[in-house]
Amino acid sequence: MNKAFKIAAIALASGLVGTAFAQDYPAAGKSITIVVPFTAGGPTDKVARDLAESLRKHLNNATIVIDNAAGAGSTIGTAKVARANPDGYTLLLNHIGMATVPSLYRKLSFNVLNDFEYAGIINDVPMTLIGKPALPASNFAEVKDWIGKNQGKINLANAGIGSASHLCGLMFQAAIKTEMTPVPYKGAAPAIADLMGNQVDLLCDQTTNTTSQIEAKKVHAYAVTTPKRLSTPALKDLPTLNEVGLKDFQVTIWHGLYAPKGTPAAVVKKINDALKLALKDPEFIKREEALGAVIANDARLEPEGHKKFVQAEIEKWGQVIKAAGTYAD
Ligand code: ASP
Questions:
Q1: Same domain? 115 vs 153
Q2: 276-327: per-residue pLDDT in tens?
Q3: Residue 115 sits in the same domain as residue 220
């Protein structure tokens, strides 16, 4: 082995290359791409774009580009990041789909626990059950009655198999013992647009997507999926699904930041440090809270805590999905 090669090999093995690389990260003039595995204008996209504004301030003012690699319930974008160069310039922002797709897809080209570095949980977001404006039902009792009378004719939008809306829809159908026709989209932005246009009947989606439409009375809102009512002005009068009789119906969506496996630990630390600072940005907090989201402020902010949480969520939702018996190939 020649000397230069030997030194490089030793440096690599000891992590020195990663450390030196991290000192310059992000290098001046280089942009960072955050892959969002759903369409632009939807709730996951909104979190990413809002976060990017605060995150970049703590990453040398780097330009952050959002890449909407949408489709197949987040698995297309997630696979893209699993295969990306592990240099910190390609990141993934995804939601609970990280924990549901391992059970919902028979085949996945990535492994959620082995193919990513975990950079921290961002927020928790409640969901809301909403209906198209033409529905002759303006509260939960009325929509329940309408569902009862329209068995076999109801369709339920979702953002693809493995998406949060799909998961919530599965739980809702099981809770009210009614099968509906799923209508999959590549994200919740086109799903809610079609709902507002009366093309689909129902949707269960994050408050970050539904609050402004509820406020503007462009959709009917029936209930929230949290154990307690929400304090957000436009949502505070909505009952919880537990209150209206669907016992133990609880689902809260979380978003997290990831880098491809092999991204140097010192770079992941820089991203995680920047995330922690961004989550303290009053502007970001204000934007999130107005839409019913709660900023993460616990052990899940640390990479190990984030990974442990995802592992527990994979087990938890795996049981729900197994009970629902739904799979995609
Ligand atoms: N809210 C969507 C979902 O159902 C995804 C999105 O467009 O953010 O998972």
A1: no
A2: 999 999 999 999 998 889 999 999 999 999 999 999 999 999 988 887 776 6
A3: no
42 lines ligand 1 (CB under 6 A): yes
**From the CB of 203, is ligand 1 less than 6 Å away?**
no
For 202-246, what is each residue's pLDDT tens digit? 999 999 999 999 999 999 999 999 999 999 999 999 999 999 999
Q: Say whether both 115 and 133 belong to one domain.
A: no
Query: Is the Cβ atom of 36 under 6 angstroms away from ligand 1?
Result: no
Q: Does residue 213 share a domain with residue 265?
A: no
Host domain of residue 188? 127-224
Our answer on whether the CB atom of 160 is closer than 6 Å to any ligand 1 atom is no
Do 131 and 191 touch, CB atoms closer than 8 A?
A: no
Question: Are 110 and 37 in a shared domain?
Answer: yes
* 107-166 per-position pLDDT tens digit: 999 999 999 999 999 999 999 999 999 999 999 999 999 999 999 999 999 999 889 999
Assess whether 121 and 132 both reside in one domain: no
Ligand 1 atom closest to residue 165's alpha carbon, by position in its atom list: 4
Residue that has been written with the tokens 């605060």 in this structure: 54
CA-nearest residue, atom 8 of ligand 1: 44
Q: What is the CATH number of the domain that holds 72?
A: 3.40.190.150
Rounded to the nearest angstrom, the distance between the alpha carbon of 21 and the centre of ligand 1 is: 35
Q: How many domains does the chain have?
A: 2
Output the CA 126–ligand 1 centroid distance in Å: 12
CATH code for the domain of 174 = 3.40.190.10
